[in-house]
Amino acid sequence: QVQLVESGGGLVQAGGSLRLSCTASGRTLTNYAMGWFRQAPGKQRELLAAISWGVGTYTIYADSVKGRFTISRDNAKNTVYLQMNSLKPEDKAVYYCAADRTGSGYVTRVLANYDYWGQGTQVTVSS
């Protein structure tokens, strides 16, 4: 079992930055692909970014955040990060991280493929 805990959310002005962290306990994240998602009120949960595991990590991004958000991982700290720059009011949502037990070098946009989820952290962007 993997327990994921997100942190780093909060209130920021438009144009500002936040860095979210997702730390795991119970098991190492070394062999998991990791994803960051968000869900705004009344909207479906959407993938923002995902990162594979193994030699030569591979990343994917949603078009809405490409060039503004960066996903990274520090296996020594069992933590995955989401650096968010140039934040916009429409980025307001609850942000979740998730872990996918998949093969090395693979990432997926399919939410159902992710096996473990954190409880979420709120991000609010004021205009």
How would you sum up this structure, described in words?
- Strand 7 and strand 8 (79-84) form a beta hairpin.
- The chain is mainly β and 127 residues long.
- The strands form 2 sheets. Strands 2, 4, 5, 6, 9, 10 and 11 form a 7-stranded mixed sheet that branches.
- The chain contains no helices and 11 strands.
Per DSSP, the total helix count is: 0
Gap from first CA to last CA: 40 Å
Helical fraction equals: under 10%
Q: Write down the secondary-structure element order.
A: EEEEEEEEEEE
Number of strands: 11
Shape: globular
Q: Would you summarize the structure shown here?
A:
The chain has 127 residues and is an all-beta fold. The chain contains no helices and 11 strands.
How do the strands and helices of this protein lay out in sequence?
Layout: E1 3-7, E2 10-13, E3 18-25, E4 33-39, E5 46-51, E6 59-61, E7 69-74, E8 79-84, E9 93-100, E10 116-117, E11 121-126
Descriptors for this entry?
127 residues, mainly beta, 7-stranded mixed sheet, 4-stranded antiparallel sheet, 0% helix
